[in-house]
Design a protein that fits this description.
Layout (H helix, E strand, L loop, with lengths): L1 E2 L5 E2 L7 H11 L3 H10 L6 H8 L3 H13 L3 E6 L2 E6 L3 H16 L20
Antiparallel strand pairs: 1-2, 3-4
Helix pairs in contact: 2-4, 3-4
């Protein structure tokens, strides 16, 4: 899997190093909307319409993020009539999310305070 210049996911074309694949995986999960979709799908399959209602986002936004996750191989669709139900493709993704929660709990505010990617810009990190 690779990420195009617009930040979208593309299927692999050729060989990539393991590091490149890991970068693409974490990049696919780095968007808050995609992470919210993955967390929701951890509870079971869902339609885009359901995700729109639960996340309070536009249908086009949710569809684009679901398509990215699908292109990255993290989400799959199951057609039922005219509806498509999406689910996670790999249970290992739940293990990754659990490991991330454990790491975040262990590091406290350090990640949130990161000057490059943090969410709390008003406080400095003290080593």
């Amino acid at each position: 899997m690779t990420i195009n210049s617009a930040g979208g996911c593309l299927a692999s074309r050729g060989t990539e190093s393991n590091l490149d694949a890991a970068v693409a995986l974490f990049h696919s999960l780095s968007d808050g909307t995609r992470l919210a979709i993955v967390r929701r799908l951890a509870d079971g399959e869902s339609r885009v319409a359901d995700l729109v209602g639960e996340l309070g986002l536009a249908q086009s936004t949710v569809s684009a993020h679901v398509a990215c996750l699908r292109d990255c191989g993290l989400v799959q669709g199951r057609s039922q009539g005219r509806q498509v139900f999406y689910s996670l493709t790999r249970p290992e993704l739940l293990d990754l999310l659990a490991a991330a929660e454990t790491l975040l709990a262990a590091t406290g505010n350090a990640v949130a305070l990161c000057p490059n990617y943090g969410t709390d810009t008003g406080t400095e990190v003290t080593p």
